[in-house]
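PROTOCOL LOG
Step 1. Enter all chains and additional molecules of the complex.
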Amino acid sequence: MSFYGLVDGTETSLKKYLGSLSGVDQVGADARAAMLATRSIKTTSKRWAIDTAISMVDLTTLEGADTPGKVKALCTKAVRPDPTDATVPSVGAVCVYNDMVEIARTHLDLIGGQHVGVAAVSTAFPSGRASMAVKIQDTKDAINAGASEIDMVIDRGAFLSGRYIEVFDEIVKIREVCATKAHLKVIFETGELVTYDNVRKASFLAMAAGADFIKTSTGKVSPAATAPVVLVMLEAVRDFYTMTKVRIGVKPAGGIRNTKDAIKQLVLVNETAGPEWLKPSLFRIGASALLNDLLMQRMKIDDGYYASPQYVTID
Amino acid sequence: MSNRIDVKKTYKLFINGAFPRTESGRTYEVKNAKGIFIANPCLASRKDLRDAVVAARAAHHGWNKATAYNKGQILYRLAEMLEGRRAQFVDEIVTVTGVSKAKAEIEVTDSVDRLVWYAGWADKISSLSGALNPVAGPYYNFTIPESMGVIAAIAPETPSLLGFIDSIAPIIVGGNTVVVLASTKAPLSAMSFAEVIATSDLPAGVINILTGRKDEITPWMASHMDIDGLDISGLSSKKHAEVKSTGAQNLKRIYSFKSDEPGRILAFMENKTVWHPIGL
Amino acid sequence: MEEKLSFEYAPAPESRALVTIKPKYGHFIGGKFVAGSKHFPTINPATEEVLSQISLAAKADVDAAVKAARKAYTTTWSKMSGKERGKYLFRIARIMQERSREFAVLETLDNGKPIRESRDVDVPLAAAHFFYHAGWADKLEYAGLGTTPKAHGVAGQIIPWNFPLLMLAWKVAPALAAGNTVVLKPAETTSLTALLFAEVCQQAELPAGVVNIVTGDGSTGALIVNHPGIDKIAFTGSTEVGKIIARAVAPTKKSVTLELGGKAANIIFDDAAIDESVEGIVNGIFFNQGHVCCAGSRLILQESIADEVIEKLKNRMAKIRVGDPMDKNTDLGAINSKEQLLKIGELSAAGDSEGAQRWSAPCDLPGKGFWFAPTIFTGVTQAHRIAREEIFGPVLSVLTFRTPQEAIDKANNTPFGLSAGIWSEKGAKVLWASQQLRAGVIWANTFNKFDPASPFGGYKESGWGREGGRHGLSAYLKGVSHE
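Step 2. Run joint prediction.
Step 3. Record the structure below.
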């Protein structure tokens, strides 16, 4: 592991690296995010943004009540979000629990969705409270079942008590398990890290440890993917690129329910990390209800009148 | 009564904590009300003013930084020292102005008390005039009065001691340094007060005292670009317009006062407002 | 999905339909619009389109306005209780809120500033100023000026073109709350929102003559300053004109407040939150095209972070959206006038010729109208003209420092003293620096924030007195012993 030459894997070097990061002023970050939220995206750009957002959705179901039937339905929706309109792109991936990965992969392949990935939440999602052995096994299971993306949670307890090296080592180990078989998304649960300083620190920690993506939240804790949190993470990937020439992806998840929110996210990406990040390989949105609103707004633009939920499928 | 010849004082300027003679080498005669010669104080020149301003500017940073408690104690110390020299000041006021001893004593008493009054303001003026401003946003916002810098003052002709105290005390209690032109006809009180200053732990340069002619010094005060404010209470109101007009060159704050009150301190203070976000 | 890497924002123009601009305007005197004699055009600086013809007030017009103001003062306004005066101000605040979009559109058309700023900053703050001061009208005896503070009488107010409506509010609201009546002159290039404000006064049923608005140029301003019927002058504008006014009123009993120029230092320490600092730099100098007296026009960077900050700043500047001020996505609008554009160009050229390095954000400037790309000069020293003179445009001079004291010394090395910025995550250092800086407004870890409750105004040659808060109110009241 090279860690991009930023750290050497020791606690001393990690502390030095994290200590070198500048702080984040909450009020300033909030103000910047609020200003970008005033961007008015109209007509052709809105249409482009909607399709881009659809292609970035990690269509998610993470319920105790999930069944093969529910997951298969989700996969169908993922491949063809609007059965009446073939121009609607597929979503980026479906995101499910470990035991649903094989069902999802099989079904996607069956219906011509080979291009849609399966993301598995991993490492004792959502709490992260399990032994390392269990977390590794959890990840291996998912990959063996066909997951191409692993959404792992960090140990927020360790992070908040300053045991950064433990968090770092866990990411490094899961990274090793993923190897070349799966993309690694590291979930911070920003609602539990609370401060933007922590979000920035976690971002740089995860990127140095080998994350392909940094992700805000599990969707189980509120607040989740607020605009300023995403802004701070986008600034982190931008700065990391300046240092390493490697682009790390960002995935806001939780709380992005409508087109307006999604477009605000794209504006954040465009004006913070830059347009290079405006593709599914570098930006994903973890969501479920969002997709239907995107579809309805798409219909409104194409048809010229407001759509009804009756015309979009509820799966 | 003995036939001893008394030792007379040479009245000099007070600049940067020292007692120099005027660089011009000039003096003028001070006579009492009956026309009898009293002293030859310095007839200060514009160059003396220049030197005094340099001293006042150099002293400003340190005096401004002194704690309010410290400033208050030093002003109180001035009162203590004046109290101890009551007889000398009464004597000089009587000699120069010809007022009764009783009247002179009242003036000295008032001067001591006035100093004590101003001393107490040092650590109160900020809470009186400062504010925490409830702005509509996540910001901590407060306004505090701060010293303006170097202030010049023209002391009134009379009362020569009390008027002088009113010319300097409100200016320095706010953290400014001062260059003051004493009463022309009755400069002895001011010059003797320099001795009070010299024994009061007031840093050199905080108060600088000139004696001389208003007509000569005032225009230079008004035009001096390193003087931030000007108290023209001691100047004939006929001259105010001209001084204010000249002072506009660096937008000097130029005021004359009718009485002592906290506003007199605040007149030579600037309000500074500080914003800071409130967040994690 | 079509492959498109860049996210082009389609034009999102605010509608003009909300505003009606008359072909020609007169003055607002004694509660009525009266015809003017001579006129001059007011243009949209973004397009050079003539919006309307504005009257140039001559002596007779100013006399009439002062007479109306005096009459209103003696017969009505000074006799009315503070409680009732306050209600008029509350009414005005509410009507301004109701008509806020109309004001914003008109301001943007006439001034050239982005609709986002007129909509989100100028107009809401203007209404807030009336709301704030309305509440003072019946509480003047608690303002710290004794138990019976008195109004001056008739206030003559002259305001600049950079925040036309907001500066009107800063002037008119405290004056009226304190019990004065006013004669106000908006800037030559930006009279329209003041004239719309006159309509608001009518809708609020403000007694005739309490607010009088005369339009014109510097000659009209001089008539106000020198008018014997005026008791109080309030001026916002250049230091140069401020000094002329100070001289003009020297022989009079007029009370004066001046809010003048600045050359604010924006100091970034190496322990600052860098990304927010970069936002603060941008907001400090590019807000309102840099047409801001308190703009952070001198960036003073700690050497250890200078390269990093400048690189980030350039990246950020490249994202500033320059163009049609009516587009909701525009960040930087038009320069207010040809004259101002020439001045900015002249000082920038001086930066080049004195050896500073110019960098401008790559952006397409419209063919018509007055435009200047966001620009920074690096390698600037204290001796450069662009480090000393107010440019009043989107041009930033970058200097560096090694120790905190050096930063403060450079920041204070100017006859101006309006504002300053400090960026550091270390609380003690922030307070130390805020104490050391000789400026009336210190923004620590923020910049260009304004609020009616927050006193604003300068040290040294940046002005006399404060506007906003209890301190600002006192400028419109007698009650202090000095004159």
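Step 4. Note key features.
Chain C has two domains: 27-260+461-478, 265-451.
The longest helix of chain C spans residues 115-134.
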